[in-house]
Design a protein that fits this description.
two-stranded antiparallel ribbon, about 25% helix, alpha+beta
């Protein structure tokens, strides 16, 4: 009898430990999330990822001319993406000219930290409320909204729709065995700490848990973004939330 109660107690403790280890979006109602827990949903959860995008190297003037373009391209994702002091160096090699260690940092591809977040997902909207965040930029119309935070740059003024128009055709949601889902539109908003680009994808794509995984790919100027999301993990209150 004693061994029975010991085994029962162990099972209860194990079950409690598993519950405690569950992430907050599974273990607690959203109304009970603390501000810290809400910020966890917004920064590191199935709906929010901190990723390393790639900033492609700048093309040389010769390469630009070969492509029919004069001067470096301007706009979001092109201006302000290179760190200060990363311009060309004066070559110390009088025989070979610039090259090797003389190459400028911006002539090489490098990583760039960005944040992706499904703004249309219910847990994200509830977390933003619990975290007392100022309402983030939002697009009109129904659809899946995916935001890219942390794009470098300042001083981009103008209509967000016009700023985002060149980026619309360069993004897609991809699923195995299905056509790519292109955004209805993209808009770009200047924030204090950089630019956020928000994409609106149509609900007619009918993304479901059966798809298993959806990959977001986009090019924002010289910035290349590619990130997969596990749809099985994006369940909230028994429903897929995107």
């Amino acid at each position: 009898m004693r061994s029975f109660w010991i085994r029962s107690a162990c099972l209860v403790i194990a079950a409690s430990s598993l519950t405690a280890a569950d992430p907050v979006w599974k273990s607690k109602p959203a109304a009970q999330w603390t501000e810290e827990e809400a910020r966890q949903v917004l920064s590191s959860s199935p709906w929010a990822k901190e990723i390393s995008a790639v900033v492609t190297r700048r093309l040389t003037e010769d390469q630009l001319r070969e492509g029919g373009q004069m001067g470096q391209p301007l706009g979001i994702g092109n201006e302000g993406v290179d760190p200060k002091g990363s311009g060309p160096k004066v070559s110390l090699n009088v025989f070979t000219g610039a090259g090797g260690n003389d190459r400028s940092a911006r002539s090489l591809a490098r990583g760039l930290p960005l944040r992706l977040r499904w703004e249309s997902a219910l847990p994200v909207r509830m977390a933003e409320l619990q975290a007392h965040l100022i309402e983030p930029p939002m697009l009109d119309g129904d659809g899946y909204r995916l935001a890219v935070y942390g794009v470098p740059g300042a001083g981009f003024k103008g209509d967000p729709k016009e700023l985002g128009k060149p980026l619309t055709s360069l993004a897609a949601l991809k699923r195995e065995g299905k056509k790519d889902v292109k955004p209805v539109r993209a808009e770009a908003f200047q924030l204090e700490d950089g630019v956020v680009v928000v994409y609106l994808f149509p609900l007619s794509a009918e993304i479901s848990r059966k798809d298993g995984q959806v990959r977001f790919e986009a090019q924002i100027g010289r910035i290349v973004v590619s990130q997969a999301f596990d749809l099985n993990e994006m369940m909230f209150m028994g429903k897929l939330e995107l």
